[in-house]
Fold this protein.
Amino acid sequence: MGERACYLEFCPACDAPVTMADERCPDCGEPLADSASHPPD
Ligand SMILES: [Zn+2]
């Protein structure tokens, strides 16, 4: 058994379980907004 990813969030678009390490949903490709650590661009 390898390490199991911790699904801490769910895709807002398709509700698939995603990890905080995912920038995009692995299921539908929806960009995932992580916590408020987005620097103003
Ligand atoms: Zn999705």
Observations:
- DSSP finds no helices and two strands in the chain.
